[in-house]
Every structure is written in structure tokens, then in C-alpha cells.
Amino acid sequence: MMKPQPRICDLIPAAMFEGFLLVKDAQERINVKGAKYLDINLTDITGEINAKKWDNVDFIPSAGQVVKIRGQVGEFNNRMQLRIDRMRESTPEDEVEMPLLIPCAPRKPEDMMEDIIARVDEMENAQLKQLVNRLLDEAGDAIFYMPAAKSLHHAQRSGLLNHTTTMLKGARAVCDIYTFLDSDLLAAGVIIHDLCKIEELRSDEIGLVSDYTVEGNLLGHIVMGVSRLDRIGRELGTDRELLVMLEHMVLSHHDLPEYGSPKPPMFPEAEALHILDLLDARMFEMNSELEKVNPGAFTDRIWSLERKLYRRQDTEAAEE
Amino acid sequence: MMKPQPRICDLIPAAMFEGFLLVKDAQERINVKGAKYLDINLTDITGEINAKKWDNVDFIPSAGQVVKIRGQVGEFNNRMQLRIDRMRESTPEDEVEMPLLIPCAPRKPEDMMEDIIARVDEMENAQLKQLVNRLLDEAGDAIFYMPAAKSLHHAQRSGLLNHTTTMLKGARAVCDIYTFLDSDLLAAGVIIHDLCKIEELRSDEIGLVSDYTVEGNLLGHIVMGVSRLDRIGRELGTDRELLVMLEHMVLSHHDLPEYGSPKPPMFPEAEALHILDLLDARMFEMNSELEKVNPGAFTDRIWSLERKLYRRQDTEAAEE
Amino acid sequence: MMKPQPRICDLIPAAMFEGFLLVKDAQERINVKGAKYLDINLTDITGEINAKKWDNVDFIPSAGQVVKIRGQVGEFNNRMQLRIDRMRESTPEDEVEMPLLIPCAPRKPEDMMEDIIARVDEMENAQLKQLVNRLLDEAGDAIFYMPAAKSLHHAQRSGLLNHTTTMLKGARAVCDIYTFLDSDLLAAGVIIHDLCKIEELRSDEIGLVSDYTVEGNLLGHIVMGVSRLDRIGRELGTDRELLVMLEHMVLSHHDLPEYGSPKPPMFPEAEALHILDLLDARMFEMNSELEKVNPGAFTDRIWSLERKLYRRQDTEAAEE
Amino acid sequence: MMKPQPRICDLIPAAMFEGFLLVKDAQERINVKGAKYLDINLTDITGEINAKKWDNVDFIPSAGQVVKIRGQVGEFNNRMQLRIDRMRESTPEDEVEMPLLIPCAPRKPEDMMEDIIARVDEMENAQLKQLVNRLLDEAGDAIFYMPAAKSLHHAQRSGLLNHTTTMLKGARAVCDIYTFLDSDLLAAGVIIHDLCKIEELRSDEIGLVSDYTVEGNLLGHIVMGVSRLDRIGRELGTDRELLVMLEHMVLSHHDLPEYGSPKPPMFPEAEALHILDLLDARMFEMNSELEKVNPGAFTDRIWSLERKLYRRQDTEAAEE
Amino acid sequence: MMKPQPRICDLIPAAMFEGFLLVKDAQERINVKGAKYLDINLTDITGEINAKKWDNVDFIPSAGQVVKIRGQVGEFNNRMQLRIDRMRESTPEDEVEMPLLIPCAPRKPEDMMEDIIARVDEMENAQLKQLVNRLLDEAGDAIFYMPAAKSLHHAQRSGLLNHTTTMLKGARAVCDIYTFLDSDLLAAGVIIHDLCKIEELRSDEIGLVSDYTVEGNLLGHIVMGVSRLDRIGRELGTDRELLVMLEHMVLSHHDLPEYGSPKPPMFPEAEALHILDLLDARMFEMNSELEKVNPGAFTDRIWSLERKLYRRQDTEAAEE
Amino acid sequence: MMKPQPRICDLIPAAMFEGFLLVKDAQERINVKGAKYLDINLTDITGEINAKKWDNVDFIPSAGQVVKIRGQVGEFNNRMQLRIDRMRESTPEDEVEMPLLIPCAPRKPEDMMEDIIARVDEMENAQLKQLVNRLLDEAGDAIFYMPAAKSLHHAQRSGLLNHTTTMLKGARAVCDIYTFLDSDLLAAGVIIHDLCKIEELRSDEIGLVSDYTVEGNLLGHIVMGVSRLDRIGRELGTDRELLVMLEHMVLSHHDLPEYGSPKPPMFPEAEALHILDLLDARMFEMNSELEKVNPGAFTDRIWSLERKLYRRQDTEAAEE
After folding, report:
1. Binding partners of C (≥3 Cβ pairs within 8 A)
2. C-alpha dihedral sign at D224, D226, D227, D232
3. Residue in chain B lying closest to E299 (CA)
4. Whose CA is closest to F145, among F168, F165, F161, F166?
5. Distance from the CA of B95 to the CA of which of B83, C285, D241, F309 falls in 20 to 30 A?
6. 3-state secondary structure at position A83
């Protein structure tokens, strides 16, 4: 396990630093005397610091890499600066705790993936089971680190798995209450509804989204998801009605045309999928935003929600 | 228990009828010979029939009353008509099964009320418990038969209790998943959010809504609910922040100004209340509408949902 | 060639009728004497008439079939009725002129199809040519009679071909004016943009649309078109950027989310496709509506256009 | 009466200043030699100046206080700075003319309040008179200095009284023209419609609004006003119809859901109240904005009005 | 003066009728014996009755004409029918009280016109006076009987004058309160803002609007009014700024694009004009609608107002 | 013809410059020694440079003028600065190529004007020909340099002519395809639809728009265009229906109230005009925006189009 290390926001001049940091960007430069040095910006979840390595510039790390650093904090132009003595790439053996470096889902991706697999195994509808398994296969490893959005809800490493597994819990509860719902159909909808975000967003293994892909911009994950489902369902010979219903669930899960769904949910499982998606997104976003303000205060207006939020004074309730 | 009785939609000429029916309207008239007779329209959940009682017009039942009838089916102007031999008011001893006469919630109102009381008793927040108890007291007996709407979701006898108790199940599940939520606050919101429908709608004990009240039209149940909460909370000396938050939950539970909420939900419990309300209304409405069409068919466009609905062919799943 | 025949709107009692009519519906019934007879409703483009065949009920035509009738006009309950003496199915040799029976495109479907084939042959981009050819193949024979809508623009036999070929003329003109446009890409977009209406609408060979299909209702021709394109493009190994651009053109051709396009046109060829589609639909619809009113008059408010239209007094200009 | 004093915008280095200024903020600090001094920002309606009192720091005024200052203007870092020789709190005897220090209503609050009292006394409807008097009592002294908004129309000391009394004039004129209106009801609506702004906004006695209160954010002055009216009306036993109508007037005075009124005005007095409110807000805002530009020029786009305004060249007309 | 006459709604079989009625339509017909008779529908403000004149069919009145009738009430097919003995056109000497026959403004058109002339004479701005006088001249006699709308507010004989003169009272009051307004400019705006309704609507001298004119449909009275003002102002050499401001007032008086104003009011007089127009239309419409229901009741939903209206129980206040 | 000259964006210190530049602004100043010098900012289409003329300040050019400059590039405060040795006004003989200095239409205004004249000469409808000629006369010389907008499509010197002549080509093509259209009417609409932009925008001869005029702000070019048409049509005695139709075409060419058209197009020529206008604006704007990004990239969100645009990788197609 990783040793405790100072947080960037706590660094003060003259302090020594030893620990792991994420590379934001790095460049080899030449100083006035003609010597090479490394100019590098490093981050943990609390902030960012510029660093220089003045000699032994043996390797130039790439953006998104985690490196182990030893060095001393100095000051330059009124800003902290780290003078690096030693630096190396991190290895699996370091067991770096990523949540100290970037926002991460609260559970391990492997555990969350296991929940999903377990739910698929439980399915009584063999066609749905086959179809979902095939789609998970096609999604590949990216599913493990993929965030669920560029900047809104679940914009965190493995956010897609976090969003999906939380919704699966909701789906189970909803099917217990509204017993006329087909729970396999709803679970299948939950698992695949956002799967094409993997192709819509350009994310590295760290779980940082840099941009939308060309397909993401021109088609969007909803329509890409329908196409993929249609293609694979035809390959597998999935029952046509079942396939079209599942495609409709993906297509309608944003509910309104202006949010990307050309059709509104037209049967109860599609409606339930939309509402569970809304619930999970809102709970995540509200909770995250409220963590940033003090009890008894309002947040600033949040553009995605078109409102301010209030964090109650009564501290037992507002924090978890 | 009530004996089996023929359904109005099954009546044929010359058949005898004995059983309980609901009075739609009744009037004493005078025939060509100057004799009084009773002209009465009677309904069960399957249809309506006109009836005459030609002699012994000893009492004229009022609309909404349940009567026991014995008579014979005839035909007049190509339409069925019932000649009444005997008629009396129903009594509690008759144990009339109301669901045979009008749409009713699937559970008994007393049982549903017990669930609510149980949830209130469970509350750890004493102020909320006191406040909710007081509001339930003020609501009086009307809560037992009140529908939840004039014509949309839960427009059924005891629909308000049905809606409330189903939402309480949802609230429990949501608090299990999103543990930062204050479950007492959410449960209190669920129980009181529609309580002022009792003053907004004009309903008789049968559970039929004839119209909106003057207050219902000029203020609406949301604002009436906030006023009532404010008045009672001040009387009880409820903590100001808690009271204002609860008022806000009632105020914002329709989410958007155009649906009657001048403020959107501004903290997680308010948002959860809105989403649970939406979920229960949608599940009820979709299920009811789909029961009216055949598997594999679409409903007509439903104006309140602004869409058609599809009932899948696969019969195991679409029916409960 | 077909002989001249009376129009239904001109029939008067006692007249003889000989000619071809379209069957709206037909049923075998039994008269009071226990004898079988045929009860049939027949239409041409000017109206509808009920007919009876009292004997020799040897075959019962199906809705949408064209039959040759000989009979005499009578009157029953103040309405015209045709007594059929002889009736047979029409054959290709009859060369029935369909425009006398239902609204038809002004050109023959074969001629219009030839224009499309010619345009495809002209394509310099081999990938586009291959893709469009394959999509036309999959569309099958239905393309020949398919209308372009259930009730709006080009709701006529072969309306889809009419719409497509007219837009191809527009596309050529637009590429001549705006020379930076890729004319093959635009032509491909025109040819395939509405092709999935064949699966969205339930049409018979006569070109009458009875309803939307389940897929049509749940997915819509736009998304169905994107899925199909995606599947076939992957099979053919079409260049990814080209394929995604063509999918985007289909996806965005209704321009706005509320009209079914989750993405607006994001490059000039997509925009041009949308505008050419709009132009052809509007010209067709306005011209059709104005033909129904007198010069100098306004139409009633047309719901699809949200306006009334004016037909000018100056007759040379307003009619074609 | 207050003696003439220089305006902050006219101060030049070396000038002497004697007069009254408003304290924006004030802090005791310690100079390099370890001595206490007072660092204070002072404003009048024309601008703001920083000041220092280097010795005899006997009292530290609080924000919003008016102080009498004697000192000399200097310059520090290219900005004016006032060296204070003497400073004391202002007293009622000073008769400070507040309009020289902050935006104020053009009439004295006491005079405006008198107009309101006079209108209440004139009421023939005893219930309305009692109700309005009670609401004015509950409003307390804050009514004298309260602005009518944080940043839009009547954002001035005593702006609420200014807005109310001007609308009362309008109400009188409207009742003279449309004689079917109940003038007492309309006057009561005018007086109470914005009264809960006192609880919605956090204002000091100077009439500066710093923020919305928690209640203001979560409920808004409209709903707070309805609740208060309902509670007091029930206490006083006000006729139910009259009370509900008055509540409706408060509730509907913003006319549209998106402006905070869940119900539109549903009888003529409610409509008249809304229109008088609109008229007064617009006249105030347009006039204020036009005073900031030259004749013959347009203002910038004003976001609250979603338009630019034009000030005519003809100077007699455009200025008052 | 006209003698009292029975109201159509009070007629009973066998009664004699003598009085004036308005011709809705009239046609000469031929009875089974080949004799000519007159078939005519007649109205007063309370209803409509069919009448026959069996002989002496010497003249056939035209729709919209007022005739003097003597006859007797009979019954035909369960409906009242008037057998006419004598009929003649009405003459000025009859002094027919039109308000008994159709909805009329409460004051005489001549008196209202005098008010307008008086206001114009009062104008200090000679250019405005000249311009308004010229526009009134061009309007001609139609101004005397013109309604202000086809079916909404002031759809009554001389409704345009009624609307204009009531707004002039409002304008005077508003200028007294907001003294920075140019009262001549506002009065000019009031007088001319709806003047082009005379060309927009097709009205007969009775004051009944049958339809919109071609210009009315294609351009609308607002744009027609601007064009006319522009043309006449240029002829008269009106100061350009003054003319453009007046054109803007006409153009913006419906406030919003969706109500026909491409520009919103951009100076105070334009805003005041819009608000006075709104006030007068709303007061008229609400009062008219409420007169149709009983105290304590709601109207049906009124489409132009998008709401129901409430008539209070307290009768002193709700009726004039 | 103009000699090649360096582009501002390519200037480097010490370089000599000789050529023509556009004056952005110029001022005479006095240096520390009391001597006059000229301080001037100069632009070409690639950028802007500050210049000084230290002696012989014989003339001060005005903004928008083109001057011939000879001088040397220096540096001051890290920015390029031009020291002017000689400067004179440009003359027609210089044959300055304006497209090197500001955005210009790709064709010469005289050539474009000729196209328009040719189309008018071709008109068979003498009334339209007379009307259009008269409007072109009134437009005067400004038509030669006028841009078509302040900042959107065709914001270039002679942009109005460019827009008009391109649309004329489109109109010809559309009339060939939809033969029921009146081509003279459509061409007339094209030529006059934006003509009043000349009065709406304040442009100098260079073709730079500085602002909207008072009329432009208060009325807008659409309504100004209708008024002008109405006035001139009445003077010429143009047939009323024809005139009203043409006015309607101008009025409706923005299609929707929120874009400035109070009436939607109500006959086919009006609709065609709107669509051709839309097509030309969109093609121009998209092409211009895409020229600013690299192949394979997206533009930033473009506010007027409410979307991003994509420039394809395939370079043959995306560039002209």
C-alpha cells in the first residue's frame, strides 16, 4: 500500500516532497547556458505545482502518467515550484491510490463490474443475456476506467460503472414495487444505455476526458448505441420485438427531443429507465455540488440544473 | 361478504337482477296517468342502466349512494331497462365490494393508512413526527376515500392513499441507495405533498371527484399545502429551517413553473420527492392505459403524456 | 390502354357503369332469405360508392385490390348504390390508369427510378456508389409504390420516388451555385434520406399507407436509417469518416430536435440536404392545398404549416 | 438642515473635506511601527474613497453607518485617499440628506406611509381594513427603508413605499375608468402584494440589499405572502371567499408561471393589480436607464427588459 | 324614440310581434303550389327566429339590414316561426336602438368621436396634431361603426371608438402619474394604434365583421398602420424622429413577436401604449365573460386568456 | 494594377514597407518637445499596425480612408511600429485591390449590378419591372458597397449584391423545377427583400458597418422595406393584389415572428424566397467558418447557428 504523502495544497517553501503525482504536461527545455532541463506540471486531487528537473533528464513522462517524485519545494515569482531530485514511472507494485490524484468512483471498477456480470447471469431471458454479454465484450477494457461524462454527473474515473451499478440497485427496487415491469428488460436497458459513451468521449486510461470524438459530435452516444444494438441483435438473431424495444429504451432514455431523445419512452420499462437515470444523475450532482459549500449556504447558480442549491445547517443530515 | 351478482354489461332482456348498484342520479316523475314513479340511473364498474320503480316510491336515493336492487330486465326503445321490484339503501353489514362498482385502490384504505401511521411512528425527528401527525389529523376522514386526481393518475377511490403508500416504498429504497438523504424528511414530504388535494377537489365519500373547489381553482393544492404547513408549523414552534425546507418540498414537487412549482427542487430530498412522484404517476398511468389495449397494439395518443404507448406481444411481461 | 369511364362523383340513378374501381373493403353477408351476397365499398379519386352483388358471389376481393365492374346505379336510403352484374380482378393487360383511382406521382415509377440509377452511375466516389446501390437493393420493390408520408407531403403512390427525384434536381442546381459542395455526397444523402420510410410505414402495393409499423413508432425512419447505414457501411468496409458523415446527414435532415433530428446539420452538405427537403415538401404541400380553393381565396388554417394560404386572383400564375 | 458638502467625484488632492459619508466597510489595522490605525472605505452617491485615521482610533464604525468626517484629500498609488482628522457618528439632529449618499425614493418614507394609511382608513370594507392594518403592523419598521428589489426596479431606499404609493395612484385612476372594479379590494392588493419582500430580502436600515434570505430563496415573497395572509386571515376570521381572492391576487400578480405566479389572474381586480405592477416597474426602469444615456442615443441591451432603449433627441420631452 | 318591443327569447306561440329586427339572411323561395314566398332569419340581441312572408313578397331585404316587422308567432317542427304580415325597411326617423339588436358600445359613436377630436385639438405639438387629423380623415366614416376585433375584445358596433376613448382616459391618468411622459405623443399613439383595423377587417355598417381582408391576412393592421403613417408623414414633412417614434409605437404595441410586434416597446411612451391597450382589452373581456356566469361560479376555460375566470359571490362588487 | 505589397502579419523589424493600407483611426498629437506628430492605426485584411509620422504632418486622414504609405518597421514596447516617411491619399488610378484590405465580395459590384439589371430587363410583368427599377433607383449608390449584415452572413463589402445575385441564380433553378411558381414575382422578391438594409445599417463607402441607424433599431429593415414598397407602389399605381403580395414577401422572408416576420409565408413564392434566403446565408456562413479551422477539426460553437461545424479530412471536398 501507498505511504502517506503531502497534499499539493499543503506544500510550503523548503519542505521536502516524496510521493506520487499525475503528470499534466511535460517538456524538455534548454536553459540560458544551453543545458537541457525538464519543465513539468504535476497534479494531485488538491491542486497543481510546477516542477523542474535540472539534470539527468533521462526520460520525459507523458501527460496522464503517474510518476514517483522526490524533491524540495522552492518559490519562483511568488509561486511554489518543486525542484525534482529523483523521478521514476510508477509501477503496479506501488499500488498508487488514484483517488488521491484524481476524482474516482468510490468502489473498485473490478467490484462494480462483478455486480454487473452477476446481474446478467441472473437473467432468465436467454436472448437478453446473450445480447448484453456480447455488448459488454465489445465495450472492452475501456469500461473499467471510463467516466460517465465530460463535465457533469459522474465525471470521475470509472464513473460509467458507478452510474450503472447504482442504477441497477434502483432498478431492482423499482421492479419490487411495480411488479408488472419486466426486470430483465429493465436491467438490460440500465447496463447498455450509456455504453456508447466509450466511443462518444475521448478518454485516457486515467479516466480523464479530453474531448468528444468525431462520431460523438456528429451522432452522439444515444444513436450510436441504437445502431450498435441493431447490428449485433441482427447478427445474433434476437427476437425482433425484443430488439426494437431495447433499441427504443436506449433511444428514449433522455426523454425529450431537446435532450437528445427523438422519441419519448413509450412503455413502462423505457420510462423507468429514464427516471432511474435522472434520479442517479441528480443525486450525484446535487451531492457533489453541496459538498463544496458550507452548511447553511447556497451554491452559486449551477448552469446544468438552472438553479442554486441549499445545504442545510443541520450537519448530521447534510453530510454522509 | 357480498354475494356474486350479474355485471351490467352482461344483462340481457328478461333476466332477473339482484345486487348492489351505485346511484348516478334519481328523480321522482309523474306518468301520464298522474301516478308518481322513480326514474333512476344506476352504474357498476362495467356500465350503466336506466331503471324505473313504478310504485311504492317511498324514498329517492341521492347521487353517489349505493342501493340494493331486485328487479327484472326489460327493453325500451332498443335499450335495456330495469324494472325495480324492491330497493333499499345499503348498510355496512352488506359489506359491499366497492371495486365492483367504481375504480378503487387495490388495497383497503385502513391498511394503507396503517402503513403511513407506522412510518410516522418510526420517525426519529420528533418535530417532523409531531408536524405530520397534526397534518394527518387536520385532513380528517376524507383521506380514506380521496382520489389523487380528477381524471389523471390515481383517479380512483382511495387513490391518494394508494399514491402515498407506494411512494413511501420508493422513498425507503431511495434512501437505502443514496445514504446521504434524510429519510425522515423525505418520508414527511411524501406523506404531506398531496394532502391538500382534499381541499382542492370536491369529492364525495364514494371517491368520485365532481369538480375543483374555489380555493382549488384560485390557489391550487401546492400553495394551499404550503400555507397550511406554515400555519401549523408556526403553531407548533417547529424549527424554522426544517419548516421552510418542508414547505419548499411541497412547493417544488412539480419541478417546473409550468406544472405549478414556482421554485425547482433546491436540495436532494426535494428532488427525490419530485422524482418519486413522477415515477409513481407514470407507472400508474402507463399501466392503466396499456390494460385497455391488446398485446402488440399501440394506444391512441394520450394527451397528458403527449405520446402513444406500446403494449408488447409477449403476454407474460405486459400483464401483472 | 384503359377506356374512358364515368367518375363516381358524376354517377346518377339508373346510369350504367363499366370500369375499374379500387376496393376499400368487402364482406360476404346473408340476406333475410338466407342467401349470400357481397357488400362492397368502391372508390376512385373522386369519391366512394357502396355496391352489392346479389348472386354469383364467387370471389371476395380484398381491400386495396382493383376490380373491373359492370353494373347499374340505384338509390337506397337517399344514397347512390351500385348493383353489380359482373366483377373480376384487374390484370396487367388492363393497363389501369391508377391516377384515376388514387393520388399518384405525376411520372411513372420506372422512369423516376431510372433517374436515380443514372445519378448513382454518375458518382465518382466508388464507396458512395457501392453503398447507395446496396441500400437501393435492400429497399426492394416497395420503393416503386411507396408514398413519402401518411398524410402530409407526397402522400401519393410513388410519392417517395417523386420526392427523391425532385430533390435530386435541386441538389444538382445547388452544387452548381455553391461549388464547394461535394455533389456525390449530397446526391447520396438525397437518395437515402427517407429510404427507411419503407419500414416505418405500412403501405400496400397500391400506395396507401394504413399505419406506422411498430418499429416506425418506436424508432422512426431517421434512426432506422442511421442504423441500417451503419450496418451496411461496416459490412462494405466504407471509409469511417465518409460513413459517419452520411449517417449524420440522415440523422440531421429534419434540422431540429422537435422534428426528430437530435443533431443539427454540422457541415454544408448536411445543411443543403435539410433545406432541399424542406423546399420540396413545402412546394408540394402548398401547391396541393391551393389547388383546393378558388383564386382570390384563402385556405383554412393548415395545421402542419400553422397558417392559411392565399391563392392569387391572377389565374395565369397560380395554376400550373 | 445639512450644510452643502463636496461630492466624492469632485475631490482633488489637497482639498479639505467636511461632511457626512456612508461607511462601506471599516477595519482597525496595525502599521509597520506597531501603531493602530483605522482603514475605512466611504461612499456618497457619486463614488467611493479610501480613508485612514492614523491616531485616536477611538471607535470603529460599522458598515452602513453614516459618519461625519473632517479631513484632507491626499493621493496614494495614484488614487485619492482621505486623511481623517475628526470623525463621529451622525445623529438625528444632523438631518443628513440620505439622497446625497445612496439612491432614495423621491419622497420621505413618512409621507408615503401616510398616504397608505389614509387609503386604508378610507376603506368601506371593514374586513379588508382590519386585515391590511394587521399586515402593516406585522411588517414593522422595515417598511420605511425597504427597497423593492435587489437590483431591478425601485432598488432604492424606501423603494417599496415608492412603488406601493405610485401604484395606489394608478389603482384609483383605474377604478374611476373601470367602475365595475372593487376599489377596496384592488387597493388592499396593491398595499400587500410585495410586503413579504421584507422577509425575502436581507436589507439594512440604510436600504441596501445584500442578499436573499433562506426563505426568500426557497419560497419567494409571493408564496410567503400567501401563507402570511392565510394565517392572519384565519386568525381574524376574515370571510373565506374574500381571503382566498386576496391570496389569489398576491399569488397571481406576476401573471405567468415563469415569473413566479403558478396561477394567472382569474378576476378583474387580480388582472388590474398585475398590470399596475407591470406599469410601475417598467416606467421606473425605463426612466432610470434613459437617464444614463445622452439624447439621441440607445442604451446597451438591458437584460431584464431584453431590449435596448432609445432616448429621443427632443430634450423637452425626454427629461422630467 | 323606439317603442318597447318583445325580445325574441321571450316569444311564445300565438303572440303578436311588432318591432324592429336585424336580417341575418333572406331568400325568395317557391312553395309546392309554385307561389313565391320569403324565407328570412331575423335576430335581436337575445336570439334568432325564422320567419315566412307568404304573400306580397315585394322586397327582399339584405343581410345586415334592420326591418320593421308585424306578424304572429307560430310553431313549426317544434320551433318558433314568425308569420310576417307587414314588413318595411327601417328609416332614421325610427330611431332604432341598435343595442337591442346587436352588441354596441355603451356610448354613441358621435359622442366618442367628439372626445377624440377634443383631445387632438388640445395637442400642443402641431406636427402630431396635423398628422393625427389627417389619419382620422383618411379613416373616413367606417370609424363610426367599426368593431375593434372579429371575436375578442370590443367585438361590438363602434368597439374601436369605445376602445380608443377608454384608452385616452387611461393615457391622461398615466401621464399625470408619470410626468416624464410626453402626453401628446402617447395620445397620438392611442388614437392611431388600431386605426388600420378598418382595412384589416371586413365590416358592414351594422358593425358586424364577416372576415379578414386579403391585406389583413397578408400584412395585418400593425404593419399596414406603419406603412400608412410613413406615407402620410412623408407627405406632410413630419419631423423624421417624431415620425419614426410614432411608427415604432404602432409597431410595438402588441409587445411580443408572437403577438405581431417584431420590435418590443423601446421608449416609455411605447411601453405605456402597450400596457394601456392590454389593460383595456383585459378589463373588457373579463367583464364580458363574467356577465355570462352566475355569482360564485367559474367560466369555462377562455382560449384567448388561457384560463378560467371567477365571478365572486358578493354581488355588490361583481356587477356594475 | 496594384503592385504586390507585404502583408501586415508578415512584417518584421527593420523591414521597409511600401503599399496601401486602410486607416482605422488617426490623430494629431504633440510630443514631449512640443512638436506635432501623427499617430495612426492602419489595417489590411491580415492585421493591424500602429504607425507614427514624426514630421511634415500635412494632412490627417480620416477613418475608412485608404492611404499609400512608405516607411520602415520598428519595435516599441515589444510591438511592431511603422515609422512613416511618406504618405498620401490613394486615388482611383492606384486601382487598389480592396480584398487585400478588407473582406470583399468575390465579384466586382458593377458586374453583380449588371446581373440584377439584366434580370429586371427580362421581366415580362411590366408593373413589377417598373416597381423594382424605381426601388433600385431610390437605393442609390450605397447598393454598390453595402454589406448584407453587421456581423453575420455576407458581412463584407458589396455583400448585399453578392447575396442578391447568388439568390437570383437559386431563384432561376427553383422556378425551373417548380414550374407553377411566378418567376418574375420571385425575382422581384429576391432583389428587394434586403434593400432597406441600406437604411437599417450605418455603413461607409468602404463597406464597414459601424452601427444600426435609429430607424434600423426602432423599425428594422423588414418593416421599412414594406413601408417603402407600399408608398412607391401607390405612387406608381401598381395593381393592389400584386403590391400586397410583394409586401407580404418582404414581410415574411424571415419566416418566424422571433426572427422578425410577423406573418409566415402564405403562398409558394413567399416560401421560396424565405428558403433561398436561408440557403444562401447558411452556405456562406458555414463555408466562411470552416475556412478558419483545419481539416478533421470542429469549429467552436457558433452562436448564430447554435452548433459546432465539422471540416472533413478529405481535403479535395472541403475546400473550394
Report:
1. A, B, E, F
2. positive
3. B217
4. F161
5. B83
6. strand
DSSP E182-210: -HHHHHHHHHHTTTTHHHHEEE-TTS-EE
The complex scores an ipTM of 0.88
Cell of A266: 413509450
Distance of CA F220 to the CA centre of its chain: 18
The secondary structure element, H or E, covering residue D117 is helix D109-121
Per CB-CB distance under 8 Å, the chain D contacts of A310 are: 214, 217-218
Cell of A233: 441483435
User: Nearest-CA neighbor of F67 among F43, F49, F45?
Assistant: F43
Q: Is A35 helix (H, G, I), strand (E, B) or coil?
A: coil
Specify whether the CB–CB gap between D72 and D17 falls below 8 A. yes
Nearest to A98 by CA among A243, A258, A250, A207: A207
- Kindly determine whether residue A177 and residue B173, on different chains, have CB atoms separated by under 8 Å: yes
Whole-angstrom distance, CA of residue E176 vs CA of residue E185: 14
Closest CA relative to residue A182, chosen from A237, A245, A236, A263: A245
Query: CB distance E286–D268 less than 8 Å?
Result: yes
Q: Are C61 and C13 in contact (CB under 8 A)?
A: no
Q: Are strands F79-89 and F47-53 parallel, antiparallel or unpaired?
A: parallel
Residue E245, chain F, CB below 8 Å: the answer is: yes
Which of chain A's residues have a Cβ under 8 Å away from the Cβ of F296?
214
The pLDDT tens digits for D148-162 are 887 767 788 899 999
Is the CB of residue E102 less than 8 Å from the CB of residue E208? yes
The nearest alpha carbon in chain F to A212 belongs to F298
Cα–Cα distance for residue pair E199/E146, rounded to 1 Å? 10
Instruction: Round to whole Å and give the CA distance between A128 and F170.
Output: 53
Given an 8 Å threshold on Cβ–Cβ distance, is D283 in contact with E268?
yes
What is the spatial distance between Cα C29 and Cα C49, in angstroms, rounded to a whole number? Answer: 18
Is E229 within 8 Å of E192 (Cβ atoms)?
yes
Positions in chain E whose pLDDT score sits under 70: 1, 152, 314-320
CA distance B208 to F292: 67
- Does F219 contact E251 at a Cβ distance shorter than 8 Å? yes
Break chain D down into helix, strand, coil percent, rounded to 5.
45, 20, 35
CA distances from C301 to C310, D133, F244 (A): 11, 54, 20
**Per-residue pLDDT tens digits for A46-78:** 888 999 999 888 889 988 889 999 999 998 877
Q: Does D30 touch chain A (CB under 8 A)?
A: no
- Segments of chain B scoring below 70 in pLDDT: 1, 152, 314-320
Burial tier of D128 (Cβ tally within 10 Å: 0-12, 13-18, 19+): buried
How far is it, in rounded angstroms, from Cα E96 to Cα F250? 47
Eight-class DSSP state of A99: G
Q: Which residue has the cell 427525384?
A: C165
Q: Which of D221, D228, D230 to mutate to test the interface with B (most CBs of B within 10 A)?
A: D230
d(CA C87, CA C17): 11
Where does residue F137 rank: exposed (0-12), middle (13-18), buried (19+ CB within 10 A)? exposed
Q: For residue E267, how far is the Cα from the chain centroid?
A: 30
Return the C-alpha cell found at C233. 457501411
Q: Give SS3 for A24.
A: strand
Cell numbers representing residue E282 in the block: 383585459
Strands D36-44 and D16-30: antiparallel
State the angle between helix axes of A183-192 and A240-252 in degrees (0 to 180), rounded to the nearest 10: 50
- Chains sharing 3 or more CB pairs under 8 A with chain B: A, C, D, E
Residue B183, judged by CB atoms within 10 A of its CB (0-12, 13-18, 19+), counts as buried
| pTM, 2 dp | 0.90
- Per-residue pLDDT for D297 more than 50? yes
F298 touches chain A (CB under 8 A): yes
* Spatial contact of E178 and D162, defined as CB atoms under 8 Å apart: no
